[in-house]
Specification:
CATH class of the largest domain: Mainly Alpha
CATH topology of the largest domain: Tetracycline Repressor, domain 2
Distance between the termini: 81 Å
CATH superfamily of the largest domain: Tetracycline Repressor, domain 2
Shape: globular
Largest sheet: none
Order of helices and strands: HHHHHHHHHHHH
Radius of gyration: 21 Å
Helix content: over 70%
Number of domains: 2
């Protein structure tokens, strides 16, 4: 019994250490950027005397970033699944856009003030390697994949290239708008929207308009005309 209690206590301590490291890393990365923060700084901020604690518990920085994103993604996916269940079968672009947009603001509203996840996500999405890791993993999650399929089915008049371009724009708009609101709340400087729900409404309006906007006919360049 003593051995079991000892192993349980060790497991609990390790889990607590991992949580402390993830919380410290998320805050420091959000405030200072990914490349400006060392593992030593994260360990110290997490209250760990061992400066190698980050590497011991997580391995590489990419592994740490992935763990932080996974910590939040489960709750966001639960919201997304609920919205997917309501939207399934719809032929309205706005319904599918809402499934993409609303889960993140709804989740961020539960984190209180200050929070750092939206600002952390911006730092991740501006790093080419980490963005690829996080994006590829996100696309393996069933709710998001099904939503993208449903949205794509409503946008058949757009070419694959145009859909991809506007998808990139929409992702930037969601990520940066949420981060700016989170920053304003943390700084106490006020925001343009009175609530996270209002932010979700505004983003849904904007991205629906973005996806349904007319496409300017492509004009050939002088170089193409000479060929």
């Amino acid at each position: 019994m003593a051995g079991v209690r000892s192993r349980t206590a060790h497991t609990d301590r390790a889990a607590g250490t991992r949580e402390a490291i993830m919380a410290a890393a998320e805050r420091l990365y959000a405030e200072h950027g990914l490349t400006a923060v060392s593992n030593r700084q994260i360990s110290e901020a997490a209250g760990q005397g061992n400066v190698a604690a980050v590497g011991y518990h997580f391995g590489t920085r990419a592994d740490l970033v992935r763990a932080i994103m996974r910590k939040h993604s489960a709750a966001i996916d639960a919201i997304r699944q609920r919205m997917l269940d309501e939207a399934r079968g719809s032929r309205e672009v706005r319904d599918w856009v809402a499934c993409l947009v609303r889960p993140a603001p709804e989740y961020l509203a539960t984190l209180g003030v200050p929070s750092w996840h939206a600002r952390f996500a911006v730092q991740v999405m501006t790093d080419p390697v980490l963005r690829a890791i996080v994006t590829d993993e996100a696309l393996t999650r069933e709710p998001l994949w099904e939503i993208l399929q449903g949205l794509g089915g409503c946008l058949g008049s757009l070419s694959a290239e145009t859909r991809a371009q506007r998808g990139d724009m929409a992702r930037q708009l969601i990520t940066h708008t949420c981060a700016e609101r989170e920053r304003a709340l943390a700084d106490g400087t006020g925001t343009r929207q009175p609530s996270w729900e209002g932010t979700a409404d505004a983003l849904t309006d904007a991205i629906t308009g973005l996806l349904l906007a007319p496409v300017t006919p492509r004009r050939s360049t002088p170089e193409e005309n000479r060929t």
